[in-house]
Amino acid sequence: MTEALYYNDSYLKEFQAVVTEVVGNGVVLDRSAFYPGGGGQPSDLGVLRAAGAEYQVTKLSRKEGKIVHELDKAPQAVGTKVTGFIEWDRRYKLMRTHTALHILCGVVWKEYGALVTGGDMQPLQARMDFELERMTTDFAHEVEERVNREVAAARPVTTAVLPREEAFRNPDLIRTKINLLPPGIQDVRVVDIHGLDLQADGGTHVANTREVGRIRVVGHESKGRINKRLRIQVE
Predict the structure, then answer these.
(1) Which of 99, 84, 94 lies closest to 12, judged by CA?
(2) Quick one: 66 exposed, middle or buried, by C-beta within 10 A (0-12, 13-18, 19+)?
(3) What average pLDDT does range 11-27 have in this prediction?
(4) pTM of the model
């Protein structure tokens, strides 16, 4: 099992690890700061250096419950010590974008009581779908004003781990229309934007809403009778 260093420190850019398994052109590490992807957030990219050689981490994948760092060439052997470097500019943009989606989700839930039905993101742009019956240009502008007030409020963003039973006693914690937490997960990581949003989430985030930057609602559309989409861009 790879120790997920990004769970406790989203700002970790460099780390030391040991190769525990070789899978094709990829490696499993005993610990990693590379986010493997999930919840709409893409996996990290970056570099592994070992024994004077450099390997591009082209993607991360899950195989038989293991996180595999896919490399651009044949990797080193099991037991090799490596140094990992996150492609930081891309990661930080994704952290800002992911936090922007939590702000959006928090505002729409708090002000309009709408659950999330889907979402996706790339660096500095994303979309989120909500269980809403109406979607207009005026509504999109109103949401944009509200989310940027939350950015300016400089709310702290923290994480914690709760036992599954305790987490599910909080009716506000699961904001998706369908509970996406696998039954086998007994400890639930939660991301808390203080005073606005509390969600079960495994991704990476900035430490304060002010770091996000201005959020623009750049599009809206209907995806069904009670399924509406907002597209955002982070400046």
Answers:
(1) 84
(2) middle
(3) 96
(4) 0.92
Q: What is the DSSP string of 122-182?
A: ETTEEEEEE--S---HHHHHHHHHHHHHHHHTT-BEEEEEEEHHHHHT-TTS--BSS--S-
The answer to whether residues 19 and 79 touch, using CB atoms and an 8 Å cutoff, is yes
Is the pLDDT confidence value at 178 over 60?
Answer: no
For residue 34, CA distances in Å to 10, 110, 192 come to 10, 33, 22
Write the DSSP symbol of residue 6.
Answer: G
- In the chain, what are the domain boundaries? 3-86, 91-234
Q: Running DSSP on this structure, what letter comes out for residue 176? A: B
pLDDT tier at 76 (50, 70, 90 boundaries)? Answer: confident
Architecture of domain 3-86: Beta Barrel (2.40)
Residue 202 · residue 180 · CB < 8 Å: no
103, burial (CB in 10 Å: exposed 0-12, middle 13-18, buried 19+):
buried
Give pLDDT, residue 180: 54
Question: Is 91's pLDDT higher than 90?
Answer: yes
Alpha-helical regions (H) of 65-136: 88-112
Has residue 168 got a pLDDT over 80?
no
Tokens 């406790």 belong to residue: 8
Query: In this predicted structure, what is the pLDDT of residue 206?
Result: 98
Give Cα 24 distance to the centre of its chain.
Answer: 27
Class of domain 91-234: alpha beta
